């Protein structure tokens, strides 16, 4: 079981690779999609909700760019374990079943082949229209640390998504006025099934695992759009659509804990036993939908050491990353939060790995 750090695109720098190495990481998970760039002029409420612009024809997905990024990690003694998320610009019509769907499928096939050829083992994805939405940052983690919270009653109003947007990002500024019509979960499952049946064989050939993130927040609908994996047993439904080593899970402990059915320990056992987990978001939370708070790794409802022992028992040997953490009060709130989580994880992993 290995330690890694997830880095957003603007944080994929030599300094941050050294920071990861210093904290004991051996692996990096890279987000290549912009979330915060190019949002000048948007109201700050939208910025708070990760609103951004999805770049088209983005060179970052080319084989040469992937190799260059991998080399920059390797130079600091780190491995490139996974890419997290496709860009909304590259698959909006796959999610929406729109007119350019087949061309976008062909483009994703090319991306998967590039990723495999570059020797990057995993691509994480979240098959979702509304994406991660509805969180509000509040100073409610230990010591008043600012953290993401979800409260259906007090959160933002669930308005429909305007045309030209998906996953909280704009891909088309010239889209006709109006909003995306509501979509049922059943319809989204059909789209996911087509997606997996077309792409899993390509991923197998490329030596890549596609790893699904559950719905965050795990509500049955968000803004009127159905969700897919909002209960732990639905991960099994996703795996059974296309049984393959390449059809895998980006296992988010925090999101699973936020679900109302089952429990996180049983879910870890069920899915690690099947060797279905690509990598793990190791984070903790207090509460469940429709009301929860992300918290420091050692202050939440999950007994993280107990959880790690289940991964160990089932011989999971992949990478754990902190996902998100509360921000610590200092000049580098994000780095301090990550360093705290990584130090905890490093200690926990060495205890459990050596048992
Ligand atoms: Mn997650």
TrEMBL record:
Q: What is its EC number?
A: 4.2.1.8
One GO term under biological process is: D-glucuronate catabolic process
Instruction: Please report a single Pfam family linked to this protein.
Output: UxuA
Q: In which pathway does it act?
A: Carbohydrate metabolism; pentose and glucuronate interconversion
Enzyme class per UniProt: lyase
Q: Which cofactor does it need?
A: Fe(2+); Mn(2+)
- Highest taxon above the source species: Bacteria
Tagged with keyword Metal-binding: no
Q: Which InterPro entries match?
A: Man_deHydtase, Xyl_isomerase-like_sf
List the molecular function annotations (GO) for this entry: ferrous iron binding; manganese ion binding; mannonate dehydratase activity
Q: Which UniProt keywords apply?
A: Iron, Lyase, Manganese
Give me the reactions it catalyses: D-mannonate = 2-dehydro-3-deoxy-D-gluconate + H2O
Q: Which PANTHER family does the record cross-reference, listed alphabetically?
A: MANNONATE DEHYDRATASE (PTHR30387:SF2)
Q: Which family does it belong to?
A: Belongs to the mannonate dehydratase family.
Task: Tell me the function of this protein.
Answer: Catalyzes the dehydration of D-mannonate.
Name used for this protein in its record: mannonate dehydratase
Q: Which organism is it from?
A: Paenibacillus pectinilyticus
């Amino acid at each position: 079981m290995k330690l890694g750090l997830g880095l957003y695109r603007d944080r994929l720098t030599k300094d941050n690779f050294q920071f990861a190495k210093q904290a004991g990481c051996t692996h990096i998970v890279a987000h290549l999609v912009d979330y915060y760039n190019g949002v000048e002029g948007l109201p700050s409420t939208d910025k708070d909700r990760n609103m951004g612009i999805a770049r088209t024809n983005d060179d970052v997905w080319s084989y040469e760019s992937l190799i260059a990024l991998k080399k920059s990690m390797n130079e600091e003694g780190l491995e490139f374990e996974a890419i997290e998320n496709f860009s909304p610009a590259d698959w909006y019509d796959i999610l929406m079943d729109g007119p350019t769907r087949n061309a976008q499928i062909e483009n994703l096939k090319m991306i998967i082949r590039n990723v495999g050829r570059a020797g990057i083992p995993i691509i994480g994805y979240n098959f979702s229209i509304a994406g991660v939405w509805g969180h509000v940052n509040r100073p409610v983690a230990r010591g008043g640390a600012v953290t993401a919270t979800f409260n259906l009653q007090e959160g933002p109003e669930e308005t429909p998504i305007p045309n030209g947007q998906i996953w909280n990002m704009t891909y088309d500024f010239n889209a006709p006025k109006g909003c995306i019509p509501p979509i049922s979960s059943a319809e989204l499952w059909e789209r996911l099934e087509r997606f997996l049946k077309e792409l899993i064989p390509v991923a197998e050939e490329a030596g890549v695992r596609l790893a699904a993130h559950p719905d965050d927040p795990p509500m049955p609908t968000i803004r009127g759009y159905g969700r897919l994996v909002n209960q732990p047993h639905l991960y099994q439904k996703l795996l059974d659509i296309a049984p393959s080593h390449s059809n895998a899970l980006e296992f988010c402990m925090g999101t699973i804990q936020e679900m109302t059915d089952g429990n996180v320990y049983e879910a870890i056992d069920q899915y690690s036993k099947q060797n279905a987990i690509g990598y793990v978001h190791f984070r903790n939370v207090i509460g469940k939908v429709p009301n929860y708070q992300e918290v420091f790794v050692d202050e939440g409802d999950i007994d993280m050491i107990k959880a790690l022992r289940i991964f160990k028992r089932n011989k999971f040997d992949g990478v754990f990353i902190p996902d998100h953490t509360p921000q610590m009060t200092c000049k580098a709130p994000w780095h301090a939060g990550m360093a705290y989580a990584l130090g905890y994880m490093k200690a926990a992993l060495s205890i459990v790995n050596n048992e």
